[in-house]
Amino acid sequence: MFYALGWLFVLALLALWSLGAWALHAIAAWTVAHAGALAGGSGVAQGLRVPDWLAPWVPPEFASALDSMAAALGPAIETLLGWAPALEGGLSVAIWVVWGLGSALLVVLGFAATTLIAVLRRRASAPATPSASPAAAR
């Protein structure tokens, strides 16, 4: 029963790991597919400003520092978004290689749990050894 529970736990972790890798791949593929629209004059710097509902509670110095930082980082972000389509193939390969390594690690974890369960069961079922004292020998 413990073996089944151990492997069921490993399979549940493998399912969660696979779902996470698939979701990350889907999000990355969608982002790369829409990178041209994101970079094409959308105004990255205008998107990085303090929301109107938050403006009364934010100090003006912080808001101006955020605006200047967004203006300075805007061209760099647009350049990175322009490179995104070229990175699509490598990103997919990297995500699935990491998934494969993680899956292999989970299978190794399953075998380690099986071995641990076997050792603990043998240890629990082993009879107690008599003590080596002379009084016990009589």
Order of helices and strands: HHHHHH
Note the main sheet: none
Distance between the ends:
42 Å
> Number of domains in the coordinates?
1
Low-confidence stretches: none
Question: Strands, helices and their partners?
Answer:
Blueprint: H1 2-33, H2 35-39, H3 44-47, H4 60-83, H5 88-125, H6 134-137
Your description of this structure?
This protein is mostly helical. It has one domain. It has six helices and no strands. Helix 1 runs antiparallel to helix 5.
Summarize, please.
The protein has six helices and no strands.
Observed structural traits:
single chain; 138 residues; mainly alpha; 6 helices
